[in-house]
User: Fold these one by one.
Assistant:
Number 1:
Amino acid sequence: MTTVVFSYVLYLLLSVLLTAWVGRMLTRHGRVYLAEVFRGDERLAAALNQLLVIGFYLVNLGFIALWLHIDQRVVDVRGVFETLSLKLGIVLLVIGALHMVNLWIFARIRHNALLRTQLTGSPRQTG
């Protein structure tokens, strides 16, 4: 197996495993967070949690596939590690950035729901 093929295999293996691990954590802990954001509507929280996790997997696996190509020549073990660190680092930064954007959005939703509760005395808007 050439060093380039070895780099591809390691990159795919590690990035898919990291994506699966993060996805499991998001599913488990996101359920609790979304249940708080959408107080009183557990079905909505559970459904949205699943949709977000599916989107997470699609975006990340798509990015991993697009980022697979290696431009530089990998000729030794040092090149394998340098290529993997660059590629995995960027994948992790993208996953982290998407996660922070999601958290910010749901924090705003929760904040608005709390304001609505304070103003109307009801956690859900009727109408």
Note: Residues 77-120 form the longest helix (44 residues).
Number 2:
Amino acid sequence: MVDGENLGSALRRWRDRLSPLDVGLPVRARRRTAGLRREELADLAGLSVDYVVRLEQGRATTPSAQVVATLARALQLSPPERDHAYRLAGLLPPADGVVSHLVPAGVQRMLARLVDLPVGVFAADWTLLTWTPSWAALIGDPAGLPVEQRNLVRAVFGRGHAGLSSWPVRHADAGMPAALVSDLREALARYPRDAGLTALIEEVGRTSPEFRRLCREGTVGRHVSARKTIEHPVVGDVTCDCDVLTAPGSDVRLVLYSAAAGSPDAEKLEFLRVTGGRPAGDPSTPAAARPATS
């Protein structure tokens, strides 16, 4: 601290304190370090290993706010640590009174232990922040989507492709859009200074008559649960209970899909978990999930 800290040294310190188990990775024998490897951090943050190396060595000195945000999520930084990372990168930290896209460390550790379930983590503006492999297997992998398209409000009320889901989804609860609008109205009351939230509401309001109608009705509440049927191309229809949980002390929401134990839908979820949602004949499907040959 006497010599001054830079972003590279801070990243190394934060990386060294994390166990692979904290981020849902297996601990293999003969690790030379107890913390995360650079390769593991790069994978978690969606960055190249070379870029992470250059950041830590001080050769990449102007990361974008989006890069710092993804690193903060991957490293499970607290809000003060996240703000410190922004300042070390020469950036202004996110302002108070705006929607946070930081996934709390406790939620990330919980998510690492819920890896077998389809779980997505959303911000208060319903932007998808992170998800389990089982979520990608059931819904379709959103990793290839631009960040602005990973938003449930745009997916429900927008035009064209559903965005968050690669396959058609039928909602048994016809009140889900109204609940989503009500939840969004409540978020706007909590974050009136968030320009991104205001822009999202104005954008969807321009393009969706249904959204405008629901806004005029003026109901206030939170989107908490639903029953959905996903038309999966590999296993057919999968009907799940979809529950929305809010982490205490945080505005992030965990959306969990589940089915009754022993039911055909639970068996389909387990098949998708094992295969990653790929057909049984796909060469990349794990051998344990492929049909036996004579």
Note: The CA atoms of residues 262 and 268 lie 10 Å apart.
Number 3:
Amino acid sequence: MLSFPGEQLAAVRRYEAAGFRAWPAAAVHYDGTWAIRLTAGHPAKRLNSVNPLDRGDVANIAERVERAARRFYSYGRPLTFRVSPLAGPELSSWFDQQGWTRFDESLVMHLPLAQAQIEGAIDQIPLKDIGRFVSASLKVQGADASLRAGLSELIGAIEPPTGLFAMERAGEPLATMICVHDSDLVGLFEVITHAAERRQGHGRKLLLSALKWARLRGAGQAWLQVEAANEPALALYRSLGFTEVYRYHYRRPPPLSGA
């Protein structure tokens, strides 16, 4: 784990806190400064992971990991750590020594809205009907209908003002996204274009409309999370002016022998 100056760690803390508010887990427990987030109704890793929030909090790792594992087992979720720059290097070394898998590296990116090229963006009013948005989102993702209740509950639990954006053609959803306005920040989540409609500019148009909505509401900075392996999305965000702030990844223990 690389060292990070205090200024950068302060920025990481700000985005991590905004992410927790924008994507709220159903249950949050703390073991020291490890935030243990669990959500029975939705399988997303961000909602079902241990998030260490202080680089110096690395005492009794094995004992605390075992306690977290019991919580995850009770929810039927695989024990998963989300490792940001706020996690201490000793914790990453412990994972390595124990043979834990590292996967799904992601970037947190930001864009000052004063620099966003939104002059020609379409004025789009966010949907008010959560049910309609959830239907569109699941269809665009090609996700199972069993996620409907969990996604609806998740969106309903978001406390900051939220814009639910959907682009449709003849009643069929093409792209969807969630825009969470939290003080000066606006977070962009679940930015998805239907597989059959990609590379046609739908995602760009929807993003620009959402950024315009956010700037009109007084937000000063947009941010988002994207998997490092998602090259098309990265290319889109970079073309809009987003730049990397920091990265995080996930860790899971090796399977039990004989499992």
Note: The first helix runs from residue 6 to 22.
Number 4:
Amino acid sequence: MRPWAARRRLDGVSVRNVLFILYDGVVALDAAGPLEVFAAANAYAAGHPPATPDGAAYRIRTASAHGRAVRTTSGLTLSPDLDLQAAPLPHTVVVPGGSTAPDGSVVPDADAVAWLRGNARRCRRIASVCTGAFLLAEAGLLNGRRATTHWSRTAELAARHPGVRVEDEPIFVRDGRVWTSAGITSGIDLALALVEEDLGRDASLTIARHLVVFLRRHGNQQQFSTQLRAQSAERPGLREVQQWIADHPDSDLGIEALARRANLSPRHFTRAFTAETGIPPGRYVDRTRLETARRLLEDSTDSIEHIARRAGYPTQEAMRRAFHRTLGLSPLQYRAKA
């Protein structure tokens, strides 16, 4: 492997080398989304001195085994810049997710895993998108670390790699120098977070606006809502109750009130709701209210008292206890991290 400073300096300005590992069956958007963020960061850096002589904040390269063209899951063919085995050591390596085997399991690319096992520990940062986490785990890079992947694969990742502390809610997780993210678009969120670490918050917000994406979703944001997490009830009456809970978290959502709305007895309602959604109605309500409060803390400047009322909590203290029980943070601490 040729020597290549992971972080070069031109006229006193840092340039970070970023390497995207490609392989047959890679998901095109897993690579293209973060790549566009880094490219946009270069455009930002060019207009915000100090900048390198050519305006670049990042040297972006793609690589595959033997430099071969790769075919993505969508049928798109990508031509990498470099032979992976000869690629200079980068500051940041990004591993996109890929296709699955006929039985639905994830099969990590052997060449990519071999490179990661031999070289990634010398990189300053390691990042994966979606099922790219399986390649990091196979290379031993996630042992003892917190990590995430697409919600449909978290159980598989945990079963295959028990040494990894898998989290199924966040859109991305940082544990030291290793970053992992969930589904396709969360790779953009992760890349924006990396750019923010390097160039500052204004850069990440400007790039997010340019790419017309949500303004820097933080890693603790959930991969999907309570409504998506639970199964949709088969009975129209129960589906209407699910929607009512989401739209009216500050209403009376006790069992008796919800049962009346479904035209069922409380006992029958509780049994039917749990059977059809996979979660008891009380827990469903608790999750919906917490989710509502989290969203309001993230997206508004309303007072904690006002948010507690809008989310359906009887008091600020009740909301604080719910946050501590589930997230280990107070509402104010959660807002500070958002």
Note: The radius of gyration is 23 Å.
